[in-house]
Amino acid sequence: MSADRELVEAVLSRRPGAFERLVREYQGLVAHIVFRLVRHADVVDELSQDTLMRVHRRLHQLRFESTLKAWIGRVAYTIGLRHLQKQAASVETADDGERFEREAADENIESAHSAREAAVIVREAVDALPPLQRTIVSLYHLDELSIPEIAEITGPPSGTIKSHLFRTRRQLREMLEARLGGEA
After folding, report:
1. Which of 14, 73, 88, 115 could form a disulfide with 153 if both were Cys (CB 3.0 to 4.6 A apart)?
2. Residue 151: HSE in the Cβ half-sphere, 13 Å Cα cutoff
């Protein structure tokens, strides 16, 4: 955590470029968390900026009880949840299946097409999940965050996160099996 402390101290002491470095390092995580919750691409930038500004205003409150990454993730998660509560809007689908599609790029056209179809099916299944489960699965499998980091970001204890992951994976498997006719 010494790198975290150094970055925080640099931002708090207003060293040139320190906050910009923090933004560069964490803006992807913030945008991903916000998007997984709100599912409206048109507000992700605004909510991400709100998150980073709140981080800047409240950075002096960081006690290093967790990593800087987890603390910033928690701020993003909170802002995303507040937006959902205010909007109570329907969820839009956006394409985040590029990760699956990249894996198919080296294969022939037929298998690449099959991989894209599979990525769309998986993305649709994940998109159908409630916001908390969708966020937990994304943070664990796409962002490769640890269970304790996800717990710090989303609030429930680590055991609850593990339980959500287990049940959500089973639910996704059932959804995919139903969609693919037992091939999943």
Report:
1. 73
2. 13
Q: Which amino acid is at 98?
A: E
Task: Spell out the residues 6+ positions from residue 38 whose beta carbon is closer than 8 angstroms to its own.
Answer: 44, 47, 80, 83, 84, 87
Distance CA 23, CA 39 (A): 22
Question: Structure pTM?
Answer: 0.61
Which H or E run contains 137? helix 131-141
- Fold match between domain 2-87 and domain 98-180: no
Q: Which residues contact 133 (CB under 8 A, 6 or more apart)?
A: 164, 167, 168, 171
In CATH, what number does 98-180 get? 1.10.10.10
The CATH fold of domain 2-87: Rna Polymerase Sigma Factor; Chain: A (1.10.1740)
Show the tokens assigned to 180: 């693919």
Domain extents for the chain? 2-87, 98-180
Residue 156 φ then ψ, to 5°: -60, 155
Per-residue pLDDT of the chain (184 residues; tens, 9 = 90+): 488 899 999 999 999 999 999 999 999 999 989 988 888 788 889 999 999 999 999 988 888 888 899 899 999 998 988 888 776 533 333 334 444 444 444 444 444 445 566 667 777 778 888 888 888 888 888 778 889 989 988 888 999 999 999 998 888 888 877 777 655 4
